[in-house]
Design a protein that fits this description.
Blueprint (H helix, E strand, L loop, with lengths): L10 H9 L3 H7 L1 E5 L1 H9 L6 E4 L3 H7 L6 E3 L2 H7 L8 E6 L10 E6 L4 H13 L4 E4 L9 H6 L9 E3 L2 H6 L3 E5 L5 E2 L11 E6 L7 H4 L4 E4 L11 H15 L7
Parallel strand pairs: 2-3, 5-6, 5-10, 6-7, 8-10, 8-11, 9-11
Antiparallel strand pairs: 1-4, 2-4
Helix pairs in contact: 3-4, 6-10
Amino acid sequence: MPVEEFPQLSKNKLARLLKLKQKKYREAEGKTLAEGINLIEQLFANGIRPLELICSNPDSLMGIIGNKGVPIFITGQNELAKLSDTDTPQSAVAVYSIPQTKLKDRRLVVYLDGIRDPGNLGTIIRTAAAFGLDGIILSPDSCEIWSPKVVRSSLGSVFWMPIQIAGADWLGQQKSLKIGLLMDGDTDLYRLKVDSKKPCCIIIGSESRGISPEVVKLLDQKVYIRINENMESLNASVAAGIAMYELSSRFDIDTKS
């Protein structure tokens, strides 16, 4: 369709969309932003449609959305730059409803204790989805799930990965085997023995302070990842990825489903 057949993004609508860059408005409206054609396409591929699309060139989106009836608004690069959360603004931004996902199965989950970097959180969510984990639990002091950077870093998997927020009290009530990654752990991750018939929770702390003392007290196993002695530590998302891969293979999780 010619650009002229799509409505222009009004100043009032732009102002409302800009509010979604703030956490309080995302929570109030139950909406968030996602930018980039690749991310929008990934979400469409997983059956997640936007409420509306804002772009400078609708032709770049027509092959993705087809005739699915998603409203498209045309605007210039300056307006897209205002909506963008990146240094290099994309040519499309989409508005999505925030889903209410629930943790149903807890065979293998990850508990994130104080992860405050959005890029790390998004990468961990994406990795958990890739390795077929059942869900993610965030401590209350972790960063917000629905910030655009988390959405982008997760490659959209935040929309279908079951995620809930819960503190140490909740964790202490769980009957799952609690395995924490610690620099001074006493068991090598690769030599750890687990019963795949029992639920397991992998616990990852922040890079700056690790797992909090109150959560350390709840651990059944304290494990470490072997690294070169010249390196101090691993990035939190990298360490989480290694642990999730290793344990998901022990649980024989089918990632094709």
